[in-house]
Specification:
This protein is α+β, with helices and mostly antiparallel strands and about 190 residues long. Helices cover about 60% and strands about 20% of the residues. The longest helix is centred in the N-terminal third of the chain and has 72 residues, at about 5-75. The model is unreliable at about 110-125 (pLDDT under 50).
């Protein structure tokens, strides 16, 4: 063998040794880093998906919060009798009626509700749910026209406060008059 081939063999051997000692571990670490990068990208995508889900849940919560406010307005925690009296009077004057008088009874105890619940159960399923809530019973006496009463009842139905008109009675003041005396039995619910 000549000197050139020995030098080439030694260089080749040194190249192979250098490759396995330095370049191969470096190459393996680069492969590991690429796998770590792929894992990190996947985790980033998962976190982004979670953030989108959290934002959607927060938005849903905000929407439900608005609905809950409506529920608390429809079924407040307290009776708030002065507000109700003012509301009935305001609705009467807005619809061209005169509020003659108003009587109310405190809530009926749940033990005493059996008689009322039987009558309510005949009215429908939604009333069965309402029978679970305490309520105030109002007797409202109004004076005015029939069209005024119709619009008053519509206003009560559109009111955010949850209430039922249970009885309606009326009589004419004079034979030729269009003025009536209306007596309404209204139940107003609360929590």
């Amino acid at each position: 063998m000549n000197k050139k081939s020995i030098i080439i063999s030694i260089n080749l051997l040194l190249g192979v040794i250098l490759f396995f000692v330095f370049i191969d571990p470096l190459w393996n670490s680069i492969k590991m880093l690429k796998m770590d990068i792929i894992k990190q990208e996947q985790e980033t995508k998962n976190i982004e998906t979670l953030l989108l889900n959290i934002q959607k849940l927060e938005q849903d919560y905000q929407e439900i919060g608005v609905d809950m406010n409506d529920i608390f307005l429809a079924l407040p925690n307290e009776k708030d009798i002065p507000y109700l009296i003012n509301q009935f009077e305001l609705l009467a004057s807005n619809n061209g009626l005169l509020l003659e008088s108003m009587n109310f009874d405190e809530e009926i105890n749940r033990k005493d509700k059996n008689a009322v619940s039987i009558g309510i159960a005949r009215a429908g399923q939604s009333d069965k749910l309402l029978s679970e809530f305490p309520y105030l019973s109002f007797e409202i006496v109004l004076n005015g026209s029939y069209s005024g009463l119709k619009s008053y009842l519509e206003s009560l139905g559109n009111n955010i406060r949850l209430m039922d008109v249970r009885t309606i009675g009326f009589k004419k003041y004079e034979a030729e008059s269009s003025v009536f005396k209306f007596t309404l039995g209204v139940l107003v619910y609360y929590q």
